Automatic annotation (TrEMBL):
<keyword id="KW-0349">Heme</keyword>
<dbReference type="Pfam" id="PF00067">
    <property type="entry name" value="p450"/>
</dbReference>
<feature type="binding site" description="axial binding residue">
    <location>
        <position position="680"/>
    </location>
    <ligand>
        <name>heme</name>
    </ligand>
</feature>
<keyword id="KW-0408">Iron</keyword>
<keyword id="KW-0479">Metal-binding</keyword>
<dbReference type="GO" id="GO:0020037">
    <property type="term" value="F:heme binding"/>
</dbReference>
<keyword id="KW-0812">Transmembrane</keyword>
<dbReference type="InterPro" id="IPR053007">
    <property type="entry name" value="CYP450_monoxygenase_sec-met"/>
</dbReference>
<feature type="transmembrane region" description="Helical">
    <location>
        <begin position="242"/>
        <end position="262"/>
    </location>
</feature>
<dbReference type="InterPro" id="IPR036396">
    <property type="entry name" value="Cyt_P450_sf"/>
</dbReference>
<dbReference type="GO" id="GO:0016705">
    <property type="term" value="F:oxidoreductase activity, acting on paired donors, with incorporation or reduction of molecular oxygen"/>
</dbReference>
<comment type="similarity">
    <text>Belongs to the cytochrome P450 family.</text>
</comment>
<keyword id="KW-0560">Oxidoreductase</keyword>
<keyword id="KW-0472">Membrane</keyword>
<protein>
    <recommendedName>
        <fullName>Cytochrome P450</fullName>
    </recommendedName>
</protein>
<dbReference type="InterPro" id="IPR001128">
    <property type="entry name" value="Cyt_P450"/>
</dbReference>
<dbReference type="GO" id="GO:0005506">
    <property type="term" value="F:iron ion binding"/>
</dbReference>
Length: 762
């Protein structure tokens, strides 16, 4: 039995006012004090006469004030989680002190209130609710209280804070508190769990009139709406079942795997703080499966008090950054924090290439780079200069007949998203693949969108032909069609882009079959972002009457030419050079609508910002929702929609006190087209296509949503190749040609050398 008596305290305690009253107490008791950099707990007591150590976090009433409660809860959860695999005879507790400062003046009532408030706070948490609280009235009683607690522990047995298994109630809590409206409080959850014995029963009730009425009777309309919306949006997948079999399969698989792996994982105190979810262990994995990539941005926003957090997804840890300066640090460490493993990952999981081809793609070429990298770099020049002009000409020639057909009758109802998707798919792929474009076949076009829309289960790669059937079938059909295209020599009469993507791997010895597989994933670049971006740009302009009129007028005055034969001609170069409001609005919509989260893989252990340790094998994410909308970059209007934001190059900076305050072209500013060194090479092509489509459509037609309300439709979390929130459902509008332009002939023109847009990039 040890008789040595000492306390290890965290350096971070020195910065808290409570330390000035607590340290004299320890010194007076003649206890050895050791300082530690570990900050997941504040104190570690090694008291005499017991072979026990006790780790504690120190909570005072100021930690329970409104502004600090969430931080305190997160800290307690992190403390409980990080220390969950404790060594024998090491215990955890919260030491609750009466006051940061005036200990001696505080009285009983206040103390009781604080204690109740702390209990209520940690009671909310699955992970922290098991932590014992050691109250201490006066500084001089801290040691005695801790000693008493340790005596009780030594007498044992005493239950450790444990992680209860996910129960229906905890899942239910997750469902309703993570749902869109976040209405229900704890007692609502209890009522729900009393009314419905299982989630299945609740899901059935939420979608039937009788069941809904029952919820309304007990909890009111708002909550019933909220639950119904949640089920419709997130749980009722196409099959109509609450949890489809794919999810059940994944969750079951993850559960088994998780139980094995979880016990072995550790979290270093220098890694970014580990934040937990209300569902223990699996919460973040479930959250990311349900919400897709935006989940990480939501977590960064929720824990915005930390510049970087860690989320444990069981098989991998995700480090999520919300600070522009840490993002810069990631960019400066591009070797240790690299994008390359994702290219390999996508070739393996998305394209389904065999290991031998992946090895070839990874092999070093004469350029000194990998074949992967040669293919990527080979694309950039084909999307600039003359090759870009040629692609634009072809793309815009194809787009116009679609717009002509748009309002062919006096009043028509169409699914706007489907219309944009079809038009952009054909115009983009035709300009890339030429006359023998395989996407001209509607079945092949649909195959790609099946592949795209169900991508997340496909890349999970668990019997993909079974668990991700639509995506797997779609990819196989598309790859077959592309192989056929190469066999017939379609690429010989195509764009520089398609030729380069064929020639470079072919010269390196890759088979036609595998080039076709690789090419099937090219449409993620070509289409996955352009289609939803075009939809949201149209939606966000047309739903704002005043802005719509201003843009129409700008385009009419500066980019519309009426030729001698009466043709109404829109020149893409004029849109670029003489329609600043349109260009600025376009970028503002991309800024606001993107869910991008540039990703890097930790290839070797590294410190970022001299502060956080990132461990090899994990993943870094930099969500635009937390980094790209900071007030120190965008000024006080960072959260607003400001159509003119990109017209003014200095205004935001004048509000901005930080250095480098030139204009929005700053790292951590505009992230929609990527952040250096991974910047989208297709951004000019996409911009020309979207702006041409929007300018002509807005000028020629009036659009009104069916039902009269511009309400953003639901988005598809499974389409994870896209950072522009593609839709999960149709969006129906009534289309009417505008009187002023009805019956006119329309066309586009492209001016050589003017296809490159002066866009902001990160
Ligand atoms: C509005 C439309 C588009 C948006 C918002 C967009 C966005 C992006 C972003 C954010 C990245 C970086 C990926 C990352 O950091 O994870 C990227 C990369 C890429 N994009 Fe785009 N993109 C668009 C259209 C296009 C088009 C039309 C093409 C092809 C013609 C294209 C081809 C690519 C390629 C090949 C890469 C990979 C670059 C590399 O790994 O170095 N994109 N895009």
């Amino acid at each position: 039995m040890s008789t040595q008596q000492y306390i290890v305290f965290s350096s971070s305690l020195r910065h808290r006012s409570v330390w000035s009253v607590l340290s004299p107490v320890f010194e007076a008791a003649d206890i050895t004090l050791e300082e530690s950099l570990v900050n997941t707990h504040d104190l570690e007591f090694h008291l005499p006469d017991q072979d026990i150590s006790l780790r504690a976090i120190l909570v005072t009433p100021s930690c329970l004030e409104d502004a600090s409660r969430q931080v305190t809860l997160t800290r307690a959860e992190q403390f409980a989680t990080v220390n969950s695999s404790r060594v024998k005879n090491s215990h955890l507790a919260i030491v609750f002190l009466l006051s940061d400062k005036a200990f001696q003046t505080a009285r009983g009532r206040y103390r009781a209130d604080g204690l109740v408030s702390l209990q209520a706070l940690i009671f909310q948490s699955q992970s922290a609710s098991g932590l014992p609280i050691i109250p201490a009235a006066e500084p001089s009683t801290v040691l005695a209280s801790v000693q008493e607690h340790c005596n009780a522990l030594a007498r044992g047995p005493i239950s450790h804070p444990s992680f209860p298994p996910p129960s229906p109630l905890s899942l239910l809590e997750y469902v309703v508190t993570s749902g869109p409206s976040q209405l229900p409080a704890k007692h609502n959850l209890n009522v729900l769990s009393d009314l419905f014995p299982s989630l299945r029963a609740l899901s059935r009730a939420a979608t039937t009139p009788d069941g809904r009425q029952l919820i309304v009777d007990y909890l009111g309309e708002d909550l019933a709406d909220s639950i119904q919306a949640f089920w419709e949006q997130e749980w009722n997948l196409e099959s109509g079942t609450m949890l489809n079999y794919i999810h059940i399969f994944f969750l079951g698989f993850a559960a088994v795997l998780g139980l094995v792996v979880y016990r072995r994982r550790s979290h270093d105190a220098q890694e970014p703080p580990l934040v937990t979810s209300s569902i223990p262990i699996f919460g973040h994995l479930i959250g990311s499966l349900w919400y897709g990539i935006p989940y990480f941005g939501k977590q960064a926003e929720k824990y915005s008090m930390y510049p970087m957090i860690s989320l444990d997804l069981i098989v991998v840890k995700i480090y999520v950054i919300s600070s522009p300066s840490l993002m810069r640090s990631v960019q400066q460490n591009s070797k240790a924090l690299s994008f390359d493993p994702f290219i390999e990952f996508s070739a393996r999981r998305m394209a389904g290439l065999p290991a031998s081809t992946i090895d070839l793609l990874k092999s070093k070429q004469a350029s000194g780079n990998s074949l992967f990298s040669d293919i990527l770099h080979g694309m950039s020049p084909t999307l600039l200069g003359e090759p870009l002009d040629r692609m634009n000409e072809r793309m815009i020639r194809l787009l116009r007949p679609f717009i002509d057909g748009f309002g062919s009758s006096t009043s028509e109802t169409i699914d706007l998203y489907e219309w944009i998707r079809h038009a952009v798919t054909l115009a983009s792929t035709d300009s890339s693949y030429g006359d023998m474009n395989p996407y001209k076949d509607r079945k092949i076009e649909d195959s790609f969108w099946d592949f795209e829309s169900y991508l997340s289960p496909l890349i999970a790669n668990v019997l993909p032909w079974l668990t991700a059937r639509p995506a797997w079938k779609g990819r196989e059909k598309l790859a077959n069609a592309l192989e056929d295209y190469y066999h017939k020599g379609g690429h010989e009469n195509s764009s520089e882009l398609t030729l380069a993507r064929f020639k470079i791997p072919r010269d390196a010895g890759i088979t036609l079959r595998d080039i076709a597989r690789l090419e099937a994933t090219m449409a993620f670049g070509l289409l996955s972002n352009t289609v939803p971006a075009a939809f949201w740009v149209l939606f966000d302009i047309i739903s704002r009457d005043k802005l719509l009129e201003e843009i129409r007028e700008e385009v009419r005055q500066n980019a519309l030419h009426i030729l001698e034969d009466g043709t109404h001609m829109i020149d893409l170069a004029d849109l670029r050079d003489d329609c600043p409001l349109l260009i600025s609005t376009f970028q503002e919509i991309l800024r606001k609508r993107t869910s991008t989260s540039p990703t890097r893989f930790v290839t070797k252990e590294v410190m970022v910002g001299d502060r956080y340790l990132l461990k090899e094998g994990n993943v870094v994410m930099m969500p635009a929702i937390s980094i790209g909308r900071k007030p120190d970059v965008w000024g006080s209007t960072h959260d607003d929609f400001d159509a003119r934001r990109f017209m003014k190059t200095t205004t935001t900076a004048s509000e901005n006190q930080t250095e480098g305050k030139k204009d929005p072209r700053r790292v951590g500013g505009f992230m929609t087209f990527g952040v250096s060194p991974v910047i989208c090479p297709g951004r000019h092509f996409a911009s020309g296509e979207i702006l041409g489509l929007i300018a002509m459509t807005a000028l020629r037609f009036n659009l009104l949503p069916v039902g009269g309300i511009w309400k953003g439709p639901k988005t598809n979390a499974m389409a994870i190749a896209s950072i522009m929130n593609p839709l999960k459902e149709p969006f129906h509008v009534n289309v009417r040609p505008r009187k002023a332009f009805e019956g006119k002939r329309w066309d586009f023109s492209v001016t050589e050398g003017k296809s490159k847009y002066p866009l902001v990039i990160g």
